[in-house]
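Researcher: Here's a chain I'd like modeled. Treat it as a single chain, no partners, no ligands.
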Amino acid sequence: MEVLHLDPAIALLLRVCLATLFGLAAFHKVRDRHAFLETFANHEILPRALTLPGAAFVVVAELLVFLGLVGGFPGPQAGTATLALLGLYTLALAINLVRGRREIDCGCLGPDNRQPLSAWMIWRNLVLALGALALFLPVANRPFVFVDAITLLGGFLVLSLLFQAANQLAGQPRPTRQGVHST
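Model: Modeled as a single isolated chain. Structure tokens:
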């Protein structure tokens, strides 16, 4: 039975994209600590007394995942850390959605881009988790060639734009049906 191997350019693309996501997330939180603390507290996952340590844990975890992805931690370790953090995010989202608390900011895009919670964010995290799961695959042993640089740059740009577009579309208010009146 042949083992599936991940192309090294795709493995690096996944690492770069996930590292960028977590690096930017940590940057936004550190840049405006007060807004992040407020957002974190609004999720009401931990008691108020644990807001500061919980928020600090999230930032440190994001930085560690970022460093693990760019620092070349082996795929399974980088994948495990990424999956654990995505799992925590998804759990917090799910808890608040079950509570009916859709109006609070997810905190996903930094303080300048407030976005209310929605079920699509859970699906987004599951797609990101698939990328992290791919890091568990062994990487094929082949040399990098010039076209790999184009693959990395093009793939990064396309995936970044898709992520941004999906976030923008998901954050738009839903249209209401015109002309329908309740009696």
